[in-house]
Design brief:
By secondary structure, the protein is of the alpha/beta class. The protein has 2 domains: 163 residues, 3-Layer(aba) Sandwich (D-Maltodextrin-Binding Protein, domain 2); 97 residues, 3-Layer(aba) Sandwich (D-Maltodextrin-Binding Protein, domain 2), CATH 3.40.190. 46% of the residues lie in helices and 17% in strands. The protein contains 12 helices and 11 strands. The strands form 3 sheets. A 6-stranded mixed sheet has the order 2-1-3-10-4-11, sandwiched between helices. The protein has a 3-stranded antiparallel sheet with strand order 8-5-9, sandwiched between helices. A two-stranded parallel ribbon has the order 6-7. β6, α7 and β7 form a beta-alpha-beta unit.
Amino acid sequence: MRRRTFLAAGVVGSLGGPAAAATWPERPVKLVTPYAPGGPLDLAARLTADKLGARFGQSFVVENKPGANGAIGVQTVMSAPDDGYTLLAHGSAGTTIYQAVMRQPAFDTLRDLTPITIIVYFDLILCANPEMPFKTVREFVAYAKANPGKLSYGSAGVGAMNHVGIEWFKMMSGIDIVHVPYRGDAPVANDVASGTLGVSLVSSNVAIPLIKAGKLRALAVPSPRRVAALPDVPTMAEAGYPEFKLQPSAALFGPAHLDKAIVDTLSAAMKDILAEPELAKRLVDLDMTPAFTTPAELSDMIRKSIALWKGVAAKAKIVVE
């Protein structure tokens, strides 16, 4: 009799996951972002939360958990139950570059999280001080080769996307320019504008106002298409470097082992949401591009990106303690 009771309990337990997934969500869902409020990723997360809330008739509440290069927010989601009531919106730097440059990463993206979809792409712009004697990427490369070690570039910090990105470009173009780490894009852009730095890859939301004011010169964008606000600025492919593709993104994740039924439900919802013209316009106005990927596509992109950045980090000797 006791054995039959245990067997019955096991059957009920085995059905608990799918049954719960079929009725998800029955209560508010927490959407964690490992950044402070007000930044581009936070804005994308809030727009996503609003749309998901309207779609499912439940609150999707954004919770900001900044710190430790994003690890605090990720660990919050890692330690949560895999029931779909705690999700993560995180950037590609934190989910790919972090794995490549940290000596002891606090998490493994593909082991500790469940990829669902990319939400948005952001743009970087290769900018120069307007007084520099080059106006194109080819002229920049020629000048840098003629003056090795004399140009400096800034980044948002050691291991930031605009750090490893420029190091990658240095490898493919054969130039020698000096890295100067900062804390964030805004001071980098200001020092390129003042002439303290020669060049940098700068986030579009920071760079575009300075470009339009004539304080920065835009050389190219490493995105697959031109930036709508700067139609005359070529892509890196058009500038002669088709292999240099660098576009930050924000993506949606769940904890490891998130039920496939919930993943599929979220994936279908996000596909519809990201196709909405009204949302697309709001995102474009914020210098973001909505994008949808299947969970498998996102996993593959993460895997390939981590491999790329590990190679770059090893060659450039980039290590973050």
